[in-house]
Predict the 3D structure of the following.
Amino acid sequence: MSWSAWWSGAPVTGRCPTSSPAPFPSRFESPEPGLRGSEPPLAQPERHLGRALLGLGSTRDSVRALRRICHELRPDLILNFFEPLTGLAQLLEPLPAPVVSIAHQSGRSSIRLPVAGGSASTSSASSGSSGWWATHRGSSRSLAPDEDLDGQRLVVGPPLLRETLFEQMPRDDGYYLVYLLNHGYADDIREWQRRHPDVSLHCFYDKPGAPDEERASAGLTFHRLDGEKFLRLMAGCRAVVCTAGFESVSEALWLGKPLFLVPVEHHVEQALNAVEAERLGLGIADRSFALDRLAELPAEVPSGPFRRWVETADACLNRVIGRAVAEHRLRVGVSAAA
C-alpha cells in the first residue's frame, strides 16, 4: 500500500491546536471518536525577540505538553502545518514519530516583491517561522511545479484541495464573486455597484449580525461567510475578487476563473501568491478593491496545466511520507545501536 493511500484512510488519533488564529484543514474540523489533544490550545512561540523572551515559560510548557501527548498517543506520523512549536520541540529532542511539515509557498528561495514607490525588493519566500524548521521532511504547496530543495529536506508539491471542489462544474453565469476580509469595505462595494448597475456581484463578508443573505440591489447580494456556499458560487462566476490566500487562489485556478487579488497587508505569503498568480497570467493584483480594473482581467484562465499538477498530489505525498519514515527509522536505528 502506498503511503498516500494509507494516509487517506488513517484514523486521526489527536490534534494539537495552538493560539494561532489559523484554522485546521477541513479533515480535522470534526473531531473523530477518541480524538485527543491539548486543551487549552498550546502557546505559539513569539517571532519578536522581546515578546519571545517574556513568553519562554508558556513556550516551555507547551513543548512539554506536545511531547507528552505524542508519547501517550504513539502516532505513526505527525503532520505539522508549518507551526513553529513542533519544529522547536523536534529541535530540542526528536519526537517519537516521523514529522512532516506542510506549508504554502515556503519553497521559493527568493522572489521580487513590489514595495511602496514602485520599486522592488528581494524577499525570502519562507515563512517567518522557518527558523524553527526541524522536521524529517517538509512539503511546500505551490501553484506550479518547481525544483525540490534537497538541502533543506523540502519537496515542492501541488495544493491539497478539498474534495468538494472536484464536484463543481465550472460555468459562467455572468456575475463576479467578491470576498471581503474587512466588512468595512462593504460601503465601497455598494457605491461602486450603484455606479455600475449592469455588473452583478455576489459578495461574502464577516459583518457581525448580518443575515445569511442580503439582496442589497438587483445586481448586488451580500452573503455571510460560508465556505461551501462560496465554492458553489465560485463555480458559476465570471471571475473572483479576493485576498491572496493560497486555497482561494488554487480553487479558482482549478475552476479556470480569472483572479483579481488584493493581498492582506503585511502577509508576505499573500504578496508572494499575488506575484506568482500575475507571473502565471492568472489575473491582476492591487492594493485595494479597485473594481474599475475588472476590465483588465483575462477572458479565461486555462486550468489544464494546473489540474495535471494537482493530480500528482498523491505521488508527491507518497514520496514525502516515505522519506520521512525512512529517515526516522534510520535515526532510531542509529540511536539504538549507540
